[in-house]
Amino acid sequence: MALTQKQQEQAVAHLDQHFRDNRRCYVCGKNQWVIHPQLYELMKLPLGGADPERSLIPLLVVECADCGHTVSFNAKKAGLLSRGGIGG
Description:
88 residues; two-stranded antiparallel ribbon; 3-stranded antiparallel beta sheet
């Protein structure tokens, strides 16, 4: 799902509030983060068969522009998804 301009602004505001102390990359030490322009899903691994609930976590992905180290934030907690699903 591609982020709208409003969602991109909300993502930046969320990162400014919660990813503020020492934003240096844990791997290379640079401070050059890129917010991916779309959301991703992390799916629960079904053990012993199919997962009828298909548990998913929506993610906002932030990547170090230098080394590629990736950090993710829950998109719901970042306010990027409405209760009914897509939107924000």
